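Listing S7. Sequence submitted for prediction.
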Amino acid sequence: MLIVAIVFILTRSTLQQNKKLNAKVQEIYTPSLEAIEDLQESISYSRVLIKHWALVQSRPDEKERLELALIMDETIPYQEMLIDSIAQRWEPRAVEIKDSLYIEIDRLDIVYGQIRSALASFEDYDDPIVVMEVEYQFLEGASLDQINSALDKALENLQKELKRNATEVNEEIDALGDRLGLIVGNLAVFVLIAGLLIAVFVSRSITKPISELKRTLLYLGKGIYPKKNIRVSDDEIGDMAFAVNRLTDGLVKTREFSNQVGQGNFAASYLPLSEDDELGHALLKMRDDLAENERILERKVIERTNEVVQKKEEIERQKEKVTELYKDLTDSINYAKRIQQAILPPESDILEIFPDSFVFYRPRNIVSGDFYWFKIAGNKKMFAAVDCTGHGVPGAFMSLVGYNVLNQVTKVFTQPAQVLNNLNRLSAETLRANGVGDDNLTDGMDLALVSIDEKTNTLEFAGAHNPIFIIRGDEFFQLQPDKMAIGAFEYGEFNFANHSFELKDGDMIYAFSDGYADQFGGPKDKKFMKKRLRELLIEISSMPDLNQQKSVLRERFFEWKMANDQVDDILIIGVRYKELN
């Protein structure tokens, strides 16, 4: 009783101290860390929203703008107030880090306010100077980048400090537990020694025989058979021992018989303990049933094995056929690629016609439905960006038709509108003559065709769905196409419009298909869109090296696409006009 009283007092005292320390962790450090994590999430989300505010032209009532205002005006101040209420019980070092964190949050709010004021309305995005000033804030090393770095560092330091304080409290709790365990352990050793002395005395007289019976019955209840029988005495306990020994022998024989049957020895013999031994008779019936089932299963296994072998052989034959067909198909597509590459003008020929130019060309598959075309016709230099129906093999075959017909038409016509009208006529005739078209022809092309007369500094343009962009310094011009595709109408039902434009030295001319603008990607997995393509071309148009422009287009494409698949063939042609001396 004295030992129990000592253990009770020590345990109660230790538990009270542990309770106070645990309360300190649960009431101070755990809520503090959770509140800081909530503040960190709000700051991180505000970065996403302010970037959307800066880069995406939007109205004041859009969801992202309202969310940013709610976070900066209500959520973050409330989280600061919550942290302040808990921080009254922090260590001085943690309070110091928290104050520096609040300073950086105030700086962040000021910069956010400047951006929100600069782009307060939908029309503010049309001012390029305002947009450039806002975008400057997001550059590496700018004030916003510095504030974000300082914020991240302050949050990290504050979390480390609070975790360190919580760790110290937990270590104190562990020390109290170790001390209590040491004291209780020593007392337990003492009680154990005393108990052993008492047990020796009791077991020698009464307890030992009963314990042997109990242990044997417990083992039998768990399916464990004792290695030796219980000693039988001349009393009531001896009668119980005899009965248990007989039960054990019967169970051992039952186990050996079950093992023999389980190993497939259905000829094993077994003698029930009596006529009323239900278990013994059930085992004999099980042996006979298993023997019959094994014979049935052996027949079924032989039948199934023969079926599996036949099916495997058939699968191997089909696999060989599929492999051979796939190889033939791949070889054919690769050959089609070589044919298509043969019709495309090499870079040397392009630079001979337009010395200051580039072609960004990226097929979606091995072969492409987009192709580029350059030609000198008399005193005119011509080029076109063509997007045929579909992509892959169908688009590639359509591109061969389009390329050949385009060469044939420009032997007679050089005005872009006349070229497109006759291209529509000859394309339809070519496809029908070869049996690939019908009265409801759906095969066609979208293209932008440009003709430049360097003597008169005149550009002529005609387009089927595809426009061209002309960028002159800070000025942007777009020549609109007709909303009709080549092959979408019968010859004579519609005539393409011819557009003229007076060029100046240094003008950048861009023609393209829709593959770049239709690519999915970005942070919200949306299309790149023509508006974003126009802004990108304006951005790179001032680069004097056109190979550098091409590199930027490639880099921005992969940055936008990320892990998404390419959705269409991509073609962008850039030409810088140079006046004749």
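Caption to Listing S7: primary sequence and predicted structure tokens for the chain studied. Confidence is low (pLDDT under 50) at residues 435-441. Residues 143-221 form the longest helix (79 residues).
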